[in-house]
Design a protein that fits this description.
The chain is mainly beta. The chain is built from no helices and six strands. The chain is 0% helix and 63% strand.
Length: 76
């Protein structure tokens, strides 16, 4: 479990937010990124922390029930 990565989801049945346990690589904090949901996966691309730190990386989050597995995808 990665202690610095906080990932939350809302349970649609109860409208209550729940923090997910995470495994895998740390996804650095960012804003201005793109995220797409496909099945039980979230794909995150790019973003920035400030004008000096721009990201062009790509992550897949496998979001299961109350947990997420984070994998960085290398793009050639």
């Amino acid at each position: 479990m990665l202690p610095n990565l906080k990932l939350s989801c809302v349970l649609l049945e109860t409208l209550v937010w729940k923090e997910l346990n995470t495994l895998g690589q740390k996804l650095p904090p960012r804003a201005g990124h793109s995220t797409v949901a496909f099945g039980k996966n979230l794909f995150v691309f790019g973003g920035f922390t400030d004008a000096q730190n721009l990201y062009d990386d790509f992550y897949m989050l496998d979001v299961g029930k109350y947990h997420a597995i984070v994998d960085k995808i290398l793009v050639a």
